[in-house]
Amino acid sequence: MTILVTGATGNIGRHVVRGLVGAGQRVRAMVRDPRAARTRLPEGVELVQGDFTRPETWPDALRSVERVYLFPYAHDLGFVEKAAAAGVRRFVTHSAAAAGFAPSDDPSALGRHLEEERRAHRGLELEVEATGREWTHIRPGLLAVRALGWADRIRTERTVREPYATSGYPLVHEADVAEVAVAALLTDEHLGAAYTITGPVKVTQAEQAAAIGAAIGERVRFEELTPARARALWLGEGCPPKMADWLIELLADAVDGTGVLAPTGTYEEITGRPPRTFARWAGDHAADFLGEAA
Fold it and tell me: Which ranges carry the NAD(P)-binding domain (predicted)?
């Protein structure tokens, strides 16, 4: 059996590939640049050049494939339909927690963003379901890898500058998401399920900075900005205004509690183990934050 992994060099996709290889599976990775991907993926993985925007590359990627880990893409291009026609019997969809949200007409910047995300991810899920093939949808919440956006400043200044120090969500380790995806690809226990996966508890931004500091063995200072100052800083760094607006609202939403996304027990229910903590994630990524401080 050949399993195709799309998005194979991404944060979650790399772990999916490793999990499948570790389970002794034949893995094909659809990547844009096979030579660059070779250094990021395990030995024995078949690399095939492919791109969701180039349908002419799909036949080689889909040849003799029975199961697919499907990374989100512009689903109106028809990859899912072509995959089903080529003989794929099972899809495990990389979706998002927003796919499980109720439709909303909230006019706020965050409300509009979440509705756009819900429509996009639920649209892909519905396309998969319409094939009549086996499916499982994996819906991660906010990923801990968002903290990598602080890496440059932590490397150079050992400082995080953000609004709302007490804002936080139950950030999920990418390895947890991948582990559930691998189980869905290899066993029949998760057919027809849609799993929202989060970390175990809310971790505030100040706590995230402290955990990263502990992981690298140096204090990382959290400097709280006003929302207006943070927005100006992000715009100066090239962040689009609409994105800056919903990011501010996203952080404000989780100052008290976890806002739009509460912790789920999904990972523990499936694996029998508690989710990896943010401290564990920081330790796993310590090298990304190390460097010469100013």
Answer: 7-186
